[in-house]
Amino acid sequence: MKSEIQTYNNSQTAEDKEICDLLYNLIDQNLTESENKIWHAHPVWFLDGNPIVGYSKLKGSVRLLFWSGQSFEEEKLQNEGSFKAAEMRYTNANQINEEDLKRWLEKSIEIQWDYKNIVKRKGVLLRLK
Predict the structure, then answer these.
(1) What is the pTM of this model?
(2) Which residues share a beta bridge with 47?
(3) CA-to-CA distance for 129 and 114, rounded, in angstroms?
(4) Where would I find the YdhG-like domain in this sequence (predicted)?
(5) CA 100 – CA 103 distance, rounded (Å)
(6) 28 located within any domain
(7) Are the beta carbons of 26 and 102 closer than 8 angstroms?
(8) Reading across the β-sheet that carries 42-47, which strands appear in turn?
(9) Is residue 25 part of a domain?
(10) Of 36, 42, 120, 129, which residue is most buried, by most CB within 10 angstroms?
(11) What is the reported pLDDT for 119?
């Protein structure tokens, strides 16, 4: 784990750190071709410079965010924002369903909208995959 992400996880409460550590490990194991870093103050994974998944501490929960998640057609993921993002929120590590997360991560590789160039395209998203 990169030191900056370890620092982020370590800054959480014990319960939230457990969630963050588990999310990190599951994401990292399943997205072996990705790069990860702290981006906008939160851990985020990228494929070819395009953000695909990340997690962040919100008031009362840890949010797992998939940038293209609305296109996954997954009932458990809730729409987030005005683009294509979808989220799942956790208050306890036991709530993380590893089978669901693995399936969502597979979909995050297969289904991608081009967030990398959203500014250049003045807010217009194009489907990459």
Answers:
(1) 0.90
(2) 50
(3) 9
(4) 17-109
(5) 5
(6) yes
(7) yes
(8) 35-39, 42-47, 50-58, 61-66, 86-90, 78-79
(9) yes
(10) 36
(11) 72
Residue 63 dihedral angles phi and psi, to the nearest 5°: -100, 130
Closest to 34 in 3D by CA, of 91, 109, 112, 101: 109
CA proximity to 61, closest of 4, 27, 6, 13: 13
Task: Let me know if residue 47 belongs to a domain.
Answer: yes
Q: What share of the chain is helix, strand, coil (3-state, %, to 5)?
A: 35, 25, 40
Domain, as residue range, for 57:
3-110
Number of domains in the chain: 1
Place of tokens 């906008």: 40
Residue 48 phi, psi dihedral angles, 5° rounding: 50, 40
Would 120 be classed as within a structural domain? Answer: no
Domain at 77, CATH number: 3.90.1150.200
- 101-106 contacts: CB < 8 A, separation 24 or more? 101/23, 101/26, 101/27, 101/30, 101/64, 102/26, 102/30, 103/74, 104/53, 104/66, 104/69, 104/72, 104/74, 104/77, 105/26, 105/27, 105/30, 105/31, 105/53, 106/30
Q: Which tens digit of pLDDT belongs to each residue from 42-92?
A: 999 999 999 999 999 999 999 999 999 999 999 999 999 878 999 999 999
